[in-house]
Recover the amino acids of this structure.
């Protein structure tokens, strides 16, 4: 990619990250192009679809998922504390952008989704935490990483759509945690 094209690409992604954070994933792509100082044609040349742009915006997020899972696995405490701590981090991870929880949770398990690779990374991180609990015989045997991702994502979606504070989300995550542990 030419240097000027790379600058345009990077600028579009940075502006999109900010606009998506403020307005959600349905924000106007023309507004993003304008704020990035490029024409709509330049935006669409780099990102033919909205989902392609969302995918690019989420790449830094993917890098952060593994680090967050590692920190959750190092968390000191019993199975309930570990799982609840992970769920709070999971909600935080998928709630970076307005509308993010619904977008990510809806794409979970969808092989055709353009953000499938992001979902796979998140589901694998979730699976690592669940495997640790399963190895300690603390987790119910009949739950999968995908099911748990969808459940926690559902709580995050309600919180996102209702603008709930973390203190209001925690009791819902506690109910979910208690239902998953033996």
């Amino acid at each position: 990619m030419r240097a000027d094209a790379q600058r345009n690409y990077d600028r579009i992604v940075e502006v999109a990250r900010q606009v998506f954070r403020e307005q959600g994933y349905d924000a106007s792509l023309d507004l993003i192009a304008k704020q990035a100082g490029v024409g709509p044609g330049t935006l669409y040349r780099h990102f033919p679809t909205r989902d392609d742009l969302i995918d690019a915006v989420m790449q830094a997020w993917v890098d952060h998922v593994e680090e967050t899972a590692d920190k959750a696995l190092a968390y000191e405490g019993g199975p309930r504390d570990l799982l609840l701590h992970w769920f709070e981090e999971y909600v935080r991870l998928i709630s970076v952008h307005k509308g993010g929880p619904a977008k990510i949770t809806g794409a979970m398990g969808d092989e055709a989704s353009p953000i499938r690779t992001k979902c796979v990374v998140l589901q694998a991180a979730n699976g690592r935490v669940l495997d640790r609990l399963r190895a300690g015989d603390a987790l119910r045997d009949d739950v999968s990483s995908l099911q748990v991702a969808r459940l926690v994502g559902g709580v995050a979606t309600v919180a996102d759509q209702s603008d709930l504070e973390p203190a209001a989300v925690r009791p819902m995550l506690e109910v979910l945690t208690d239902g998953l542990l033996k």
About this structure: The chain has a mean pLDDT of 93. Residues 136 and 161 are 35 Å apart (CA to CA). Residues 1-48 form a domain with the Arc Repressor Mutant, subunit A fold (CATH 1.10.10.60). The chain has two domains: 1-48, 50-180.
